[in-house]
Each structure stands twice: as C-alpha cells, then as structure tokens.
Amino acid sequence: MTEARGSARRTGTTHERHAPGTPCWVSLMVHGMAATQDFYHALFGWEFQPGPQPLGPYVRALLNGYEVAGIGRLPLDRHLPIAWTPYLGSDDVDATAEQVRSCGGTVGVGPLDAAQAGRLAIACDPMGAVFGVWQADDHLGTNLTGVPGTPVWNELLTYDTASVAPFYRTVFGYEEEPVVSPDFDYVTLHIEGRPVAGIHGVGHALPRDRGAHWMTYFQVVDADKTAERVADLGGHIVRAQCNTALGRMITVADPEGATFSVVSPLG
C-alpha cells in the first residue's frame, strides 16, 4: 500500500488545528512495538519517529512526512485490550475530564502533560468504550487525511445510541443526525455543521470479549487486496466485506489483535 507516498501532497487534505470535539488523533498501545511498526509499514507505508513518552516508549507514524497516528508500548503492569483509540479534541482537557465524570464516564489516565506536545486524558463513556481527549500544544494531531494510509472515520460501536449519545453531546457539544430507520440504530455526530464521527447501536451483536468500543477506519485503494495483505502479514479478517456510505469496508485485525476497518471508494 505504498502508492500513497507519491500522491499524498497532491490529493490529501492537510490540517493545522482541529475543532474541539473532532477526532484529531488515533493511537495504538501494543506489547511488541518493533513488530507492530513493521506490520503497518508494510501495510500502509508508514515511517516512524520518536514521540513524547509520558506513558512509556511511543512513536508517531508518518506518511510522506505528515503525522497520521501513534504507536506506544503498553506498560507491563497494565492489562488492557490491544485497540486503536481515537482522541477527541479539547481546548481544556481538565474541564473535559470533569465533564466526563459528571456525565457518568470514567477518567482512567490523566489529565497529564505529554512533554511540549499537549495535554491528554484517557477516559471511557458510561457503556465502557475507551477514548482519548487531546488538548494540542506543539502537536496538533493528524496532519493528513484523504489519501490511502490515513484515518478516514471513527465510529462508536455500542449497545444502543440512546444510552450514550447524550453523554457525547453534553461533553463535546456534538450536533446529532439520527438515521430514521426501524432496523438501523445510527447517529452521525457533527461539529460546525460537518460530520466527524458516528455512533452505531448494534445490541447483542457487540463482541462479548470487547463490549462497547470505538472503531477506526483507514482509507485504502482496494479494501479486498488490503485485507489479503493483512493476512499475509500475520493479521486476519474479522468481518467480511460490505458496502457502506464510506465505500467498500472490511474489518481486520493486526497480529496483536487490534481491530480496525479498511475502506475503499466504490466503483
């Protein structure tokens, strides 16, 4: 998937600062950083450089010189799921953390400073889905979107939208656009009139070993070929392909079990 390298600056969208509430970064905490970097380098063409390390060893993934994601090593004393975590922007992470608590969520880490990069907290909503909160200083978040190898969407998979949509609306100020359908429980979250994330209520279809969780989608040229490449690199396909509003989508997992979705344009 290295075809993104030559086209990123021509066709992608670069970002300077993300509006509060916008998913502005995605980060993955793993046991084997070297093997994980090798996997994503082979899959997306990412290069890596050291980042701030308030929670331990950490690197930032770059595509054509633009920062697109982070990978860190899990502390040995923390037994947490291996999962991609979106960070939602905030102008005041301490105030946001207080809002999380007052609305029934939990703050598990922070707020704390990440050197000169910014200030962060890691929290979970009332249904247990983990997300980060990021207050930018030197590090503004994901610098590039719109090309293969970059995040294209973040979606909360939960029991039902009614249980958690008020939490995210109150904490981050989202406007909501529900899908009017008797058999599809979905709400699109908007900031400043544009869609930035979604909440999908899937009821008992939630994985029992994970519960409610956020899913990151990465743009690719061909979802089917990318899924095959994932398997070749030691990962596996979690859910077979389907066509969505974003494009052709397949959910996969890397060698440590972190799930994510790859999506390519239809037609």
Automatic annotation (TrEMBL):
It holds the Pfam family Glyoxalase_6. The keyword Oxidoreductase applies. GO terms for molecular function: dioxygenase activity. Residues 22-136, 150-265 form the VOC domain. This is Glyoxalase/bleomycin resistance protein/dioxygenase. Keywords: Dioxygenase, Oxidoreductase. InterPro entries: Anthracycline_SecMetBiosynth (IPR052164), Glyas_Bleomycin-R_OHBP_Dase (IPR029068), Glyoxalase_6 (IPR041581), VOC_core (IPR037523).
